[in-house]
Amino acid sequence: MTARLPRKVATTRMSQQQNNANFIWSIADLLRGPYKPHQYGAIVLPFTILRRLDAVLESTKQAVLDEAAKRGDSPAASVFMAKASGQSFYNTSAFTLQSLMGDPAGIKANLTDYLLGFSDNVRDIFDRFGFADQVEKLDAEDLLFLLTQKFSAVDLHPNRVSNIEMGLMFEELIRKFAENSNETAGEHFTPREVIRLMVSLLFIADDEALSEKGVVRSIYDPTAGTGGMLSVADEYLLEHNPDARLVMYGQEINGESYAICKADLVIKGQDINHIIHGDTLTDDGLIGETFDYCLSNPPFGVDWNKQKPAVLKEHEQQGFNGRFGPGLPRVSDGSLLFLLHLVKKLRPKAKGGGRAGIVLNGSPLFTGGAGSGESEIRRYLLENDLLEAIVALPTDMFYNTGIATYVWIIDNDKRPERRGTVQLIDGTGFSQKMRKSLGSKRKELGSNDIDAIVNLYGAAEESDVSKTFKNQNFGYRTITVERPLRLNWTLTPERVEVALAARSLAKLPDTDRASLVNEAARDSLESIPTSDQTGFAKQAKKFLARAGVTLTAPQLKAFIAGLSERDKTAAVVTDSKGSPLPDTDARDTENVPLSEDIQSYFAREVLPHVPDAWIDESKTKTGYEIPFTRHFYQYVLPRPLEEIDADLNKLVREITELLNEVEA
């Protein structure tokens, strides 16, 4: 039986932390005037972090100071001080927030000393917030001591506020910060209910994580933002199994978001060194690490031109040993690069395997024909049986875009019943309208909606909104259909003018050009069309001699080609070996499903219409696409003409009555 926190308890706990967050945020009222509301977060968040860390380190403060005095400038001093603190961080300053209250006049210097006393991994958080500059400004506004005093009075000791409760409180503060910021909420958050859905889909198969005592799982987000996905995953697991532990990892490119995410993990009691600052695509900060679970909501439709040199280098030099071996998408959208990155980050199958969830727009489903980078990435996923399911979300779900979005579920060790298949779920009808829109977000997933989608996934039964396909159903081969070239040649002034427009004849003297046109006009015998290529070539050489014009071999070839026109009644043009030459203008392609024999398809679909066609097998390519919408399209009969006529007649009568009233 799965152990989980009662929903009422979880709700009460969250409500308490909202109240605590509101109390801390109320301290920001002191900032009114010198600061604008959207600037409050840059002060409230780091001060909250400072107070929590101050409380966490309180019991080991003296032990760290003793160790610092003992080790001095020893290279290994940091290791011993972290050990003394019992955390992955420490502080060597003699001050605490409470002791700072004893010297109001020296608050700026003493607080600065206290901040500098933190280990590098914590000081990095305050540096990313630009907290030193805020200390300067607060002191100049005579607010520094008052604000420090207020925060020092807030009891955030672990004995009073657990890591889980502190995490909930900090998330509430982050939400308030986002609401007051000038930036859109979408730049900070993936909607919590979307994350909840993704996490539910990921964990549904992990009975051990949801039930066994002391189980440990790792989770990673390469586009961590402020840590929302990691936090919701942690909440979900603890709600279902309070004795489980989720070890969180992430990387984030934006400095301030990174600082918030890192601080959130510190507050939750996670290892502070698991969050990396930097560009995931160009510099994997956790190279070689793999995880039980991965989550990501990469930017939609953002080009990766800036990252192209590094990505291309890894693709060419490391191939499949690196992250981008399967292929590279077009530069205009790098979201599939993040998907490939996640695949590489999954725990190997031999060690238990891993699962990933990623939010993508519609483009990765079908963009790019056979042989393109996008198609090759889809091919890699499907031929290696990595793609388990795709869920279409309702539109208008995200803060900064209303476009259609999809959750892809990746698994490198599928359960036996799912192997070789992909489940598509149409979740577009599962949502409820919000009372108030937030940016582009007008809809949300209710708990019933999430449960319904998760149940569809778990049951994997065929219905109007859930369909399962074999991997090869998404594959096809693009064949090139050629038709023979049929031409006639003749020497007329008009065709000579066309021939002279060739690039290789551009520098021909004007006198030679005029001679050729005039000679064509004089010699009516030469104007009779012929399909004899060899005979016409001899004819053309005599024509040039009569006109007194000498051409090089490339020029002669271009000149004769320009004198031709396509002629369906003409003989087939052949090469020196007698093989028919293809007509490039008549060339076509056909997509043949992988499940079907190419020759059978060709005989049935092509030859009845063009009996002289053939397949150029050297150009055949294998491709993959996932036409999601097509599989769920339902034809709606148009309204009967009688109904439409009746409505029109009714409108005409109403308009006539209105006109009569006006005239009267």
TrEMBL record:
Catalytic activity: a 2'-deoxyadenosine in DNA + S-adenosyl-L-methionine = an N(6)-methyl-2'-deoxyadenosine in DNA + S-adenosyl-L-homocysteine + H(+)
The entry's keywords: Methyltransferase, Restriction system, S-adenosyl-L-methionine, Transferase
Keyword Plastid: no
Alphabetical list of Gene3D superfamilies matching this protein: 1.20.1260.30, Vaccinia Virus protein VP39
EC number: 2.1.1.72
Domain named DNA methylase adenine-specific: residues: 166-464
Positions of the N6 adenine-specific DNA methyltransferase N-terminal domain: 21-151
CDD domains: AdoMet_MTases (cd02440)
GO process annotations (BP): DNA restriction-modification system; methylation
A single GO molecular function term of this UniProt record: N-methyltransferase activity
Record PANTHER family: SLR6095 PROTEIN, TYPE I RESTRICTION ENZYME MJAVIII METHYLASE SUBUNIT
Similarity remark: Belongs to the N(4)/N(6)-methyltransferase family.
UniProt name for this protein: site-specific DNA-methyltransferase (adenine-specific)
Organism per entry: Rhodoglobus vestalii
